[in-house]
Known about the structure:
The complex is a heterodimer of chains A (638) and B (99).
Chain A: H1 11-34, H2 36-39, H3 45-56, H4 78-87, H5 93-99, H6 112-127, H7 141-152, H8 157-160, H9 164-167, H10 174-179, H11 183-192, H12 236-244, H13 249-263, E1 269-273, E2 281-284, H14 285-290, E3 297-298, H15 299-313, H16 316-319, E4 322-324, H17 327-333, H18 341-359, E5 371-377, E6 382-388, H19 391-394, E7 410-414, H20 425-448, H21 451-461, H22 463-476, H23 480-491, H24 508-513, H25 516-522, H26 528-537, E8 548-549, H27 562-575, H28 583-590, H29 598-616, H30 632-636
Parallel strand pairs in A: 4-5, 7-8
Antiparallel strand pairs in A: 1-2, 5-6, 6-7
Chain B: E1 11-12, E2 22-29, E3 34-40, H1 46-56, E4 63-67, E5 70-71, E6 87-93, E7 96-97
Parallel strand pairs in B: 2-6
Antiparallel strand pairs in B: 1-3, 2-3, 4-5, 4-6
InterPro entries (chain B): Rad60/SUMO-like_dom, Ubiquitin-like_dom, Ubiquitin-like_domsf
Domain Ubiquitin-like (chain B): 23-98
Region (Disordered) (chain B): 1-26
Amino acid sequence: MEPNSRAPGTSKTLHSHGEIESSAERVVLSEIASDASCHKRTYKKTELRRAIIRSVCHQSKEDGAEGLPLQPPAGERLSEQADRLRLGMPRRLLMRDRSGKASRALPTGCESTSARYRAELAGTLESSSEASAAQPAKWSPAKSFQTMVRHLSGGVGARMDSHGCNVWLLQSDEGHSQGTSLSPQAVDCSRENQSSPIPLPSANCVQIPAEEPAVCPHEPTTSDTLSGPASERKSPMQVDNYLETAPGTERRSKRIHRRKESGDTEQRDLFRFPEQNPGAVSITLGDLRLLQPGGYLNDNVIEFWLKFLERYRIPPYRMEQLHFMSTFFYKKITSVPQRSRSDASLAEELYDYIALRWFISRGVDLFTKRMLFIPIHHEFHWSVAVVCNLDAFANGWHSELDCECRHKPCILYLDSMRSASPGGMTKSVRSFLTTYARVRAATMCSTGVGTTRKVRLCSAGGTERSTGVRSADSEFGSTDSAGHLAMHPQSAHPEKMTAGDDLRGVRPAAAHDSPESPLRTVSTAGDQRDADERSGDSFVFDGENLPLLKPKVPLQENGMDCGIYMLMYIEHLAWSSPESYQLEYLNACTSKLFAASDADAYRLVIERVIRGLASAHGIENLPEYDVEDVDLLDAEDV
Amino acid sequence: MSSETSDKKPVVSEGKTSGGDQINLRVRDADGNEVQFRIKKHTPLRKLMDAYCTRKGVDLHSYRFLFDGNRINEDDTPEKLGMEDMDSIDAMLFQQGGW
């Protein structure tokens, strides 16, 4: 999507992103570029890492041998905290720097990953009426820090003022935290805060001493109040629990549990992200350790980072077209072997269930997404499958008619080991999508048209069909979500259809206007899938023919970075939607996305973000793992 | 298991009907094996996770529990997540990979 073709209502949203990027990017990027990148070839990994740390932290440039002051004294100044938090924020620091070089000319449309982004950013800054964003020269750590804290800590801007954990961070920025509250958060609030409102204590009654270590074991007899912050030592998660729960017995039980857990340092919860949301990921101290060089990433880190990308690193207008699947999605859809016919029906049942409960009932419409990222964990190896251009189906794409269409739906498989895709991967994904399309059509049909139609659908479809329809009905018959879903494809971005897509102009609305005609034609047909596809949405989904493409990607040079590589693929692809899905074009786009050494920087970025978020939650004394210390056991017994 | 005794322990119950305040939840692992738990709607699901992991003989943090694809946190309650009787929870082993 070109920057100037975005929806008119997104400028505010863009601005909020641009604020982060401009502040973090301009300072850090230049330093990185001048220091780490030019020495990259000669540094070893650990040296590179140190170089990055050194160059990122301009304060400790002189005493670079000591590394980054990661455990500041208790009375640390806000600006120093800002620096540390900022360290987590430079996005795509090395990658952007590299891909921006003239020598790395890529085909238009993918080289523009960075160039286009800059253009977008510039456009954002220009369009923004607030002058504060367009002040790279006057960038101040404290200001940037406050901005980031608003972004980082919690994801719900409105709650921050009353949220005890963040009060001390925002003390000097009270006006900003309300005045410039951010569009993405506002969107998130409306979408995700469906849980019952939780009574919060007023801000001034909760004070978290930032200097208090949180690891200490708690006395079982400590009082239940938070009145004496210095007398008790609480982990921030405890405080969160206080805030979350109504006064009563549950509070006590949680405290006991937390106390028990805090003894186990490796499993100690640092924070949840996104806070207060269902499905939040709990990051533990052990997860942080995995981000040291050589660590194997686990699902916590992957999922955390995907959620972080979704909320903070990828602008909402682009995120609308993307969807990150859970890391367990692939495990789930492959949990049923598809060897025999009975297996197939089992899988069908399972896919029905997943389609309904994981996606449709949550208002996620996969067929409005341009890219669907499916993290794959298979035999201790991370890779990612990307289902591209599913939205083309909903927009009327037909393989027979649009073979020249450049936005061809396909599955990309990106693997940093360039191994064969796991057996059954494509089959599972394809048949899931087929099932999903069927359930989606049935759901939309049942809710959008009416009962008579639903019954006819059942009789036309047979027994297997009826299960899906019935469950769809029971799920959505009385809720608004289905109506919202039915409306969704129509409200999908019209601008994205204009590019290369030869569209037939058959919109979902048309299907609902004349609901009878497609059913008549297919009600007696034996081809069930055909019936399903046409009945609901009047688009044909041919999941079994989704081609599998394996573009060339940068490959890992060691035995531990596949998780990092996977995340880098995801972020890069999320930023660049290739303009063509010919394999040669994709190869040209993806083979030079980044260099192997960028993985270390990316690892560092994730670590910084986690440390920054932990700091925003009041956890200050995270152990620093010495890069050159082989014996990590000593380092973590702090 | 925490030390409070007011809440009823989650018990494996086959075929028991749930009362007003209790619901039955099925925990299903990736192989399709199911264990059914009866739990109060206001009890934090940590209790269920504890019980499940104890039955499996594994550490609590070895499993991630998903409800409709969303992770369940320890202090979530069935009521908070809008669980209904006989809903199923996915117990997925943690994933880690590097090479």
